[in-house]
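#structure-requests
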Amino acid sequence: MTAKSENKKQLLTVRYDADVVAAFIATCKGWQTRMNDALRDWIKTHSPQDDN
């Protein structure tokens, strides 16, 4: 049995460009986790103030 993640998931609706979604879906099962990981990596190197 696997341990539950300490990070709770939040269900929401977002819009991404079709080519971005297609690229992640092309990586097969687990693509949503990989997209989440990519966003988490981006957060590590960017602060919210960088985009203002």
